[in-house]
Structure formats: structure tokens, C-alpha cells
Amino acid sequence: MPTKLIMPLLGEAVTDATVTKWLKAVGEKVEEYEPVLEVNTDKVDTEVPSPTSGVILAELAKEGEMVKVGDVLAWIGQQGEAVPEGEGAPAQPAAVAPPPAQTPTPSPASAQAQPAQAQVQPAPIPAAAQAAPRELGFISPVVAKIAAEQNVDLSHVPGTGMGGRITKKDVEKFIEARKQAPPPAAPTAAPAQPAPATQAASAEKPAASSLAGAYTVVPQTPMRKAIADHMVLSEHVAPHVSTIMEVDMSCVIDHRNANKQAFSAEGANLTFTTYFVAASVAALKAYPLVNSSWSEEGVRIYNAINIGMATSLGEDGLIVPVIKNADNLSLLGISRAVNDLATRARNRKLQPDEVKGGTFTITNHGVTGSLFATPIINQPQCAILGVGMIQRRPVVINDPDIGEVIAIRPMLYLSLTFDHRIIDGAIADYFLAKLVDTLRNWS
């Protein structure tokens, strides 16, 4: 009897994933525990192993398709075995059911422009002519909220996301089209005639691009789509405000130079990120309101301090592994965690749970030469710290012996971008000043 290869639970609160690559083809032999395919969830690639030895009899999900925990991904058995009847079709059904017989059949021109057709859909279709409800699949909280506030029936909104998923953009386009549509005509004895096909095709034709010249389309990866969705969501839900301060890193540099060898003997590379994490912990302890997230029931202030550190993966994007309970770690412990997570992030060896549960994020954009930036908050957190490049430049300092003098110091800018729903400018400045003071007076 063939064996099912089921989408496993990869971590707490992980309900779905995207198939990124099949490592075995139909008809190919596979050993027990040998990887069969790769899936991506929260920007983490994970191999799904075979539960048995045999031959791949059927693959039920395509690359780029979203699957849920518990879905059957493939059948594995012996050469010549048949897949159980009804189990050989792809797991994901078509996103939209075909229209009933009484619905006017669209012309070929309008059928080819189906995505745009959704954008210009007029007033609600009379009940007698509505299509049968379809399976909506996963609906994100932001989509559900917008639909509830705007009284939108999501069964009428075509989804353009992966696997037919309804995105926030789909709902917003539907709402905009509904606003622009003319009011429905008064009921008459005869049903309203559909617009001529030529007019529909004209209305649905997308505007020509104003950019001239040839171009190359680079397909969006699951990671890039996840980043895009997360960034747009963050800007949409949280009013972003940034405050910027500078800090003299002389004491940190002196401490690092004096202790690098000792840390190396303990198997840890003492990086500047270690100090930024430790200083953030000190500031979060002093101002715990920043270690929080917004909710309609009230601001949730978290007991644990879990620091996320944005890690670049080059052209593939970035990922944010989380140092859990950073407030319980020594400087050596933080250094080891930073080294371990950064290395495994770049080698694509993180586990899904290791990019979840962060309460505050640090992004060190200074490694590429940036002086300061205003990064986007990593939702649902309250704030994100941007760290610029350490730059030696002249500053005015107050020498206890000779008074104010101009001296060359290693300076860097720190930016705190925060959710103005949760904290105001004064708290943000107090927090950032505490962080600056910790770094400036490191001992």
C-alpha cells in the first residue's frame, strides 16, 4: 500500500508553507528519511524527508504552491503500485468555481483580462445570478479586518496571491472599483444586458507603462513576496516615527580590543552586534513599554526580551533570527548566540521557530556604509533600532582638564523607528538616550 508524504508541522503557529523545490521526481527512488522536497515558511527553507523507502508515485503540489500542515504532498510506494483512487490530483483546488449556466459567458477578450475584470466589477450581482461560494483558503488578519470594516463579501473578491490567496491589494482594488461603479439601475421587468465585449475589454485593458525600453522580468521568490507583504502591512497598520542620536564608540572599541582574544578562546567572535544587543537589553529593561506590541485590548508588554537581528542574505533578501531571553545572557552568551544564528541564517540552516517570537529588532545597515536610516518596524513589535556605520570624524568634547576641544572620535548614528500608537516621542528619546549612554560609558 503506498504511503502518504504529509506536510509536517514545522514549528509553533506554522500553519502553511510554500513548496520551493522538488528534490525527487516521479518515478525516482528515495530512501527513508531522504529529503524529497523543500518548503519555505517565514523565509526559512526546510527539507521534508520521506517517511519510507520506495519510489515517488505522485507529486500533488507544484513548486511555488502554498500547502497547509496535514496536506498530502506526494505518494511513495513500490514500482507499479497505483495511487488510491481520487488521490492523484493536486491538493490545491482551483481558486474560483466555474460560473453557473445562467451567468453570461465572457468574450475571449474579457476572459484573457480576468485579473483586471475583477477590478472593474460593478455593483453586487443579483442573488439569482451569483456563482456558488468558493473555498477562500487562508485569510490574513489584515484582509479580514478590511473586509469587515468595508462590508466586503470575500467570496466575490478574486485572489491574485499564491494559490489564489486573497491579498490586501485585491480587497482594496475591489473596494475602489465598487466606489467608482455607477449606482444600480432601478429594477425593471427585463434583466440588464451585459456591456458589449469591446467596451469591457477596453475598460479592463491595463494602462501602458510610461517607461520605455526593453526589460527583464525577475520572478518573485517566496522570500521576496514574504518581505513585501510584511513591509506593506507594517506601514499600513503602524504610524512610523523615527528619532536619531549619535554615540561615541570609543569605550566599546577599547573593550572589544581588550577582550576579543579571550572571547575567541571561548569559541565566540566578539562583534559589535553583541554590544548593540546588550545595550538594547539594558534600555528595554529601563523602558519596558518599548518591549511591547499593540492590540485592541491594550498594549501587551512582554516579560521576556527576545532580540531579533536582521541578517542579510545578499540578493535573496534578509531574515531576522531571534535571540530568545537575551536579558538572561551574559556578553559571552549573547556573542555566542549572535555568531550561531548569523552563521546558520546565511547557510539556510535556521528552524522556523528561530525566526518567531521577537519583541524588538536591530538592523545594522552600517555594514554597507550607510550612516543612518529609518527602517520599517518588524510587526507586531513596537520599535526597531537602526545602527549606522562607525565613522571617525571631528567632534567637540569636554575635556576635564582643558575644557571644550575638537577631537577625532569613532562616531555612529542610532535611529529608533517606533509605533506612535504605543509610545510618544519623549519615551522614545529616553529609551534611545539610555541605549546611547550604555554604549558611550561601556566598562
Structure description:
The chain has 443 residues and is α+β, with helices and mostly antiparallel strands. It has three domains: 3-77, OB fold (Dihydrolipoamide Acetyltransferase, E2P), CATH 2.40.50; 108-179 and 222-237, Irregular (Dihydrolipoamide Transferase); 239-440, Chloramphenicol Acetyltransferase. It contains ten helices and 19 strands. The protein has helices at residues 108-112, 114-119, 141-150, 168-180, 197-204, 222-237, 250-265, 272-286, 331-346, 425-440, and strands at 3-6, 16-22, 29-30, 35-41, 44-49, 54-59, 66-68, 72-77, 240-248, 292-293, 300-301, 307-309, 311-312, 318-319, 322-323, 360-363, 383-387, 391-399, 403-419. Strands 9, 12, 15, 16, 17, 18 and 19 form a seven-stranded mixed sheet that branches. Strand 13 (311-312) and strand 14 form a beta hairpin. Helix 3 (141-150) packs parallel to helix 4, helix 8 packs across helix 9 and helix 8 (272-286) packs across helix 10.
Keywords for this entry:
Dihydrolipoamide Transferase; OB fold (Dihydrolipoamide Acetyltransferase, E2P); 3 domains; 27% helix; Chloramphenicol Acetyltransferase; alpha+beta; 443 residues; 7-stranded mixed beta sheet; 4-stranded antiparallel beta sheet
